[in-house]
Amino acid sequence: MFTLLPKHLSSKETYKLLSGAVVPRPIAFVTTVSTVNGAVNAAPFSFFNVVSSDPPLLSISVGRRNGVMKDTARNAAEMKEFVVHIVDEDLVGDMNKTAASLPAHESELDLTGLHTIQSDHISVPAIREARIRFECRLERHLTFDHDGGETVNDLLIGRVVCIHLADEVYDPEKGYIRTEALRPIARLAGNNYASLGETLSVERPT
């Protein structure tokens, strides 16, 4: 077994290990409103998960580029709102296009065939084609520094204020998400993604 100490690794080496080992990861496809000109910025993030159900909180970790905040983090931190969409098999191609580095005044959605729709409780538009979307207000914005003291990461904690579910993915009688209908996509390492694939059930001990 290999034993590695992060202090002996470069940030790139650590990233490759963490992103390759912590798999599969859900993908947050996030829209925000640009602080520059009001354009709808969109970007995917796979360092993403649920923090709490009561209150309903989601976390998105946004790495900085050469110490500069990415559009999503800056917009969310200043505007205090964002929308998180769950990526499914139909969205993955367009989602990938929005990972392109564009100036803050340009909308990544212009690179795609996706359309926006007005949110119900916040001012940030959502992606109409997404089967699940969460309207969020910023609960916390935390920053993290590397060992050299430079701020390299923005952690956004969003409080879910509204949930939109397509008819085919929600069972209103049981209150369940039909994952087989959602067909979610998960992030692996490099350029690789995974579909839902085979599932298994294991009863929890009482």
Description of the structure:
Belongs to the flavoredoxin family. GO terms for molecular function: FMN binding; oxidoreductase activity, acting on the CH-NH group of donors, NAD or NADP as acceptor. Residues 20-178 form the Flavin reductase like domain. It comes from Bacillus sonorensis L12. With 206 residues, this protein is mainly β. It has one domain (26-194): Pnp Oxidase, Chain A (Roll). The protein has helices at 11-21, 71-79, 92-97, 179-182, and strands spanning 25-26, 28-33, 40-45, 48-53, 56-63, 81-86, 116-117, 126-127, 132-145, 151-165, 170-171, 176-177, 186-187, 193-194. The strands form 4 sheets. A 7-stranded antiparallel β-sheet has the order 3-2-6-9-10-5-4, with helices on one face. It has a 3-stranded antiparallel β-sheet with strand order 1-13-14, with no helix packed on it. Strands 7-8 form a two-stranded antiparallel ribbon. It is globular. The mean pLDDT is 96.
